[in-house]
Amino acid sequence: MKPLGKKSITLRLTLLFTVVSALVLTTLGLAVGALVERHFEEMDTELLVGKFELVGHALWEHSQSALSDRLDAALVGHHGLAVAIWDASGKPIYSHGSVDFPSIMKVPGTDLRTHPKLWRNEDGQLFRGISGTVTGGAIVAVSTELQVHEHFMHSFNKTFWGLVALAAIASGLFGWLAARGGLSPLREICRDTAGITADHLDRRLTAEDFPIELAEVARTLNEMLGRLEASFRRLSEFSSDLAHELRTPVSNLLTQTQVTLSKTRTAEEYREVLVSNSEEFERLSRTIADMLFLAKAENDLVVPELGPLNLREETDDLLEFYEALADERGVTLSIKGEASVAGDRLMLRRAIGNLLSNAFRHTPRSGVIAVLLTNVDGMATISISNTGQTISPEHLPRLFDRFYRADPSRQRDSEGAGLGLAITRSILRAHGGNATVRSEDGLTTFELRLPSIQQ
Amino acid sequence: MKILVVEDEPKTGDYLHKGLSEAGFVVDLARDGFDGLHLALTEAYDLAILDVMLPGIDGWQVLQGIRKAGKEIPVLFLTARDSVDDRVKGLELGADDYLVKPFAFAELLARVRTLLRRGTKAREDDVLRIADLELDLRRRRVTRGGRKIDLTSKEFSLLELLLRRRGEVLPRSLIASQVWDMNFDSDTNIIEVAIRRLRSKVDDGFELKLIRTARGMGYVLEDGE
């Protein structure tokens, strides 16, 4: 089927129209031809049988001498009609018209009255004839010459098949026109989509302008364009975010290094600069690693290695890790509840850890960070609440966006590049879950939900 | 201890050579896969550090060549690409560890020492000592100058790690991973806080400070200069 798939639809439709109409017309032509032929045959047979009976009658009524005249008189004016009579021994008694009857018709006792015979003589003339044995043993043969019929059929066929050919060509032409006309909306779609480039990804096809069959195609194309536009926008935002986020630290490094090099310093001063650079570089490489993780997650390349996981145990371990920090800051940690999921241990630890780090960043001295685990209706929930400033509602939906900082004045503080929450969300999504946040009355709660398993 | 480094990036190669030499190792540096494999097969090394992307034959092929020749030296891979496939491939081919560029040099050094230690069966001492500090593993007791120091269980593990790897600069990420089993970057100063608290218990009131900060790199436990 492959070569067919490559041919143009117009050509295929044109061929189809031509072939189908030629087939239909040929069948019709053959049927009409056969009907006409049969009609002629019936007429001939009727004539031949009539003459046969006439001859039989004459044979019975008249003596041999009177017979010739009687028959000649009866047969005059019948153009192309021939009659021959033989006696029982095969001797010719009478003959009208010089026709050489086939020998099978002369056999005594033969009866071909109801089965007319067709034959050609040496000149190629076509005859139809019947023969039979009449009372008294004589054999009578009657024939008619078919030149007129043949002539008619010939010109009939010529005209008819000419018409058939013309009609087939005409319907092919109509087919071509119809296909071209029918496909013109496709060409329009082509033209319209050809105009959509990376610079104009916001353009759409107007589905209403197309016939019903193609409106669906236009809508599907539009949906695809929508998805493309979204990924394209994400990608370019991603690049510009990355460039922007890397510019500040690189600029700091460059300035600091060049200022240091501008005059001779003590070993201790050089040391200071190198240490500070090293810290900055480490932060940069962390940012790059995190960006790569997010880029992979957006392309569904982050595949969690799922295993049964007791979230309570994992969170307990995490809280133990953060314990010293909590002590130091006078922050109270608490945990309640149980939940079990199928998840990637490293990834989920990171997801929860990021939320805890975030909570520590925003909890004031002697504040509270509370973790609550629940397991309801097949969904495990980890909610991490911290006391502190209420985040205004306009920031909430964007908190999980990479590099988003609710408070612009906190740009690039010493901790965090603003990717932690984005990573948490992408990890949860890779687990078929989601991450949400709400904040009211001095309490901010992040909630992670993912499918649970029964422990 | 002799280490083979196969790295084509000139600066990286030079600094690995310099850093590892200064850390007390004998280092041979090869700039491409052919030289690397040749050296690995003709010289005796305790460890090989291979870059994955190399001119000539790549790191995987060098590793295969080494293993085919029946050499069981530990191999650490360096790569700029962090993909699970690469990691799996490396481990399947018999790599012992895997580090993604850019990495902290202290991290590399720590991993190299871990790999080198793996072969030699460490003496299982019940008591670890440095200067006048004693850590009794069996009784989980710590004393300094004969005086008992009360530590939480994590502080004990942290001190044990520092003691076992005395003289080595341990990066924060390694400490978080070894003591708390946390393998992500917490974006907080947790390790700093934990070290500060441990230091106040171990070093406060003593002339000789044992826990030192290697600025920009990590922490190290050592006595003397």
Automatic annotation (TrEMBL), chain A:
Entry GO terms, CC: plasma membrane
The keyword Transmembrane appears for this protein: yes
Protein name: Sensor protein
Cell compartment(s), UniProt: Cell inner membrane
Function: Member of a two-component regulatory system.
CDD domains (alphabetical): HATPase, HisKA
Organism listed in the record: Azospira oryzae (strain ATCC BAA-33 / DSM 13638 / PS)
UniProt entry tagged with the keyword Cell membrane: yes
Principal EC category: transferase
Lineage start: Bacteria, Pseudomonadati, Pseudomonadota, Betaproteobacteria, Rhodocyclales
TrEMBL record, chain B:
SUPFAM superfamilies linked to this entry: C-terminal effector domain of the bipartite response regulators (SSF46894), CheY-like (SSF52172)
GO biological process, one term: regulation of DNA-templated transcription
OmpR/PhoB-type domain: residues covered: 125-223
Sorted UniProt keywords: Cadmium, DNA-binding, Phosphoprotein, Transcription, Transcription regulation, Two-component regulatory system
Residue ranges constituting the Response regulatory domain according to the UniProt record: 2-116
InterPro entries: CheY-like_superfamily (IPR011006), CusR-like (IPR006291), OmpR/PhoB-type_DNA-bd (IPR001867), Sig_transdc_resp-reg_C-effctor (IPR016032), Sig_transdc_resp-reg_receiver (IPR001789), WalR-like (IPR039420), WH-like_DNA-bd_sf (IPR036388)
GO cellular component: cytosol; protein-DNA complex
DNA-binding region (UniProt annotation): 125-223
Superkingdom of this protein's organism: Bacteria
Transmembrane stretches, start-end: none
Presence of keyword Ubl conjugation: no
Protein name: Heavy metal response regulator
Positions of modified residues (4-aspartylphosphate): 51
Entries under PANTHER family matching the protein: REGULATOR OF RPOS, TRANSCRIPTIONAL REGULATORY PROTEIN CUSR-RELATED
Pfam families recorded: Response_reg, Trans_reg_C
Entry annotated with the keyword Phosphoprotein: yes
GO molecular function, one term: transcription cis-regulatory region binding
